[in-house]
Design brief:
This protein is of the alpha/beta class and about 325 residues long. About 40% of the residues lie in helices and about 25% in strands. The strands form four sheets. It has a six-stranded mixed beta sheet with strand order 6-5-4-7-8-11, sandwiched between helices. The chain has a two-stranded antiparallel sheet with strand order 1-2. Strands 3-12 form a two-stranded antiparallel ribbon. It is elongated and about 120 Å long. The mean pLDDT is about 85.
Length: about 325
């Protein structure tokens, strides 16, 4: 707990002379009765009021102290702090071309990919993770961050809508996807930097070839893990017909040779996932990557806590008033 107005504690100083005055005044105001012998009063029971006679004074002191604490504006912790955590820098490069709507993975490739990727992100709370989406073009959906709530939210919104609406070109630009992710990792200070590239197609778009992008990654010390999704042979695909869709079987085309070369060039590994379980196992294998230390800047928000002290002071004043009126009334 911190206090925003420390000067308010100066108001506690008047309590010292007030306490001294009360003690001296109390001694002078004690009633007395002169009797020839006090022996008869030795065993006389004392009223319970004798033990509570100073209660109003104590309550008044406590109320004043609590009011001073309230004026000092107590607050919960709120500051930037640096701490070291174990983690790596990871960019997830996800294919969002329309072929990812194929239904050989359930319910389809894009939904299966984002579900498994979300679990992967949730299981690595200390990593810096970012998102790159690509089809015929590539763009950064989320820069690297340890705020995984943001990453998970953006993953949940992942789909092929942008391609279907014509916001980006359809197709598969593997080189552009890798290059976009590299721009987020090139200045990273982490010991281990990784790109996890997931696609279901063959490179057919973009100004940068996949192998050129792989060489760039190697020069920056960035490993690329490639994942090809889709079963062998034919895959059911919802082909648009008028205002509806018709399921047709389309051939699965994954350039495994290029994906393998990308992984080998960067000391990564190529995986093939033909169903949901295999895709989960792929991310589980990648989850065993080495970790390195990262410095993270954290922010904690302050909350005002004067209400507790103010309510406490009010309760003390009410108790004092009730004691004086009901129990400790004095006859003039």
């Amino acid at each position: 707990m911190t206090f925003a107005n420390l000067i308010a504690f100066l108001l506690l100083i008047p309590l010292v002379p007030y306490i001294v005055w009360y003690i001296l005044a109390h001694k002078k105001s004690q009633p007395s009765l002169r009797v020839p012998d006090t022996h008869a009063y030795i065993r006389a029971p004392q009223s319970w009021k004798i033990y509570t006679i100073h209660a109003p004074f104590v309550l008044r002191i406590i109320a004043w102290t609590l009011l001073v604490f309230a004026l000092a504006r107590p607050q919960s912790s709120n500051d930037w702090s640096n701490r070291e955590i174990e983690g790596i820098d990871i960019m997830l490069a996800m294919d969002i071309s329309t072929s990812m709507l194929a239904q050989d993975l359930k319910p389809n490739r894009v939904e299966a990919a984002k579900t498994v990727a979300s679990s992967f992100v949730a299981d690595r709370p200390t990593d810096n993770i970012g998102l790159t989406f690509f089809a015929g073009d590539a763009f950064t959906q989320c820069p690297m961050t340890t705020d995984h709530a943001v990453v998970l939210q953006l993953l949940q919104n992942m789909g092929c809508d942008q391609v279907q609406q014509g916001l980006i070109h359809d197709g598969t630009a593997l080189g552009m996807g890798i290059a976009n992710a590299l721009t987020r990792l090139e200045n990273s200070k982490a010991k281990s930097k990784v790109i996890i590239l997931l696609t279901d197609g063959v490179n057919n778009m973009g100004d940068i070839s996949p192998l050129t992008a792989a060489d760039m990654a190697k020069s920056l010390g960035i490993r690329v893990y490639t994942i090809g999704v889709g079963k062998n042979g034919l895959a059911p695909y919802p082909y648009p017909v008028g205002n509806t869709y018709q399921i047709v079987n389309l051939p699965v085309e994954i350039d495994e040779q290029v994906l393998t070369q990308i992984a080998q060039t960067t000391d990564g590994q190529y995986y093939r996932a033909t169903n949901n379980d295999e895709l989960k196992r792929v991310y589980s294998d990648i989850d065993k990557l080495e970790k390195s230390k990262l410095k993270v800047k954290e922010y904690s928000k302050k909350f005002e806590m004067f209400q507790i002290f103010g309510i406490g002071a009010l309760i003390c004043l009410l108790l004092e008033l009730l004691l004086r009126i009901l129990l400790l009334r004095r006859i003039p």
